[in-house]
Amino acid sequence: MLIGRVPERERLHRLLAEALTGMAGAIVVRGEAGIGKTALLEDVALAAGPAQVVWVRGLEAEQEIPFVGLLAACTPFLDVIDALPAWQADAIRGALALGPQTAPGPLAVGAGTLSLLGAAAAERPLLLLVDDAQWLDAASIEALLFSARRLDADAIAIVFAARDGEPTFAADGLEEVQLSGLAVGDAHELMRSASAACAPSVAHQLIEVTAGNPLALLDWLPENPGDGR
What is the pTM of this model? Predict the structure, then answer.
């Protein structure tokens, strides 16, 4: 269960609710490592209801492979490629190595991605979750952001989660949600939920030292009562 993050959860749930009524949108969630970006994405995924949920996860080891992220985003919808205009379908097939090895331009791939997501959402609303977006390959970032900026009357919600720092995930034009540390009360609740007993003074020091970072809090919790590490 996700603890705290009420405003952020409400914003993402509203994005999803709007998508279910045909009002597409996209949001970028930012924050330092361990701050709870993935947990927030998992929370909205659990609320997806009738929507199909597709996860894309950027991997540092694969960020130099063109279109590897786009492949993950589009694979569930390959059966609707034939519904796209021929030039867009050819661009997607070429980018994803599903057809003749051409070098499609970024406009063709972006337009094809947008059309493919729209065709998929016409059959069933779509929630696309892109985690660790800072590690996506550049070609996939370009195509997905091209689509996210041009969503219109489609049943699509896209949420990107990106870590602060380098490499930078630049997403100009999209709404952003910045995550900071948990509020003190929420941090105490997180520690209690972890079933780790520690003195109030120790708990206070941990919250202060970690600045409320959930992962850091859990990593530094004493393993047993009286352990003040």
Answer: 0.91
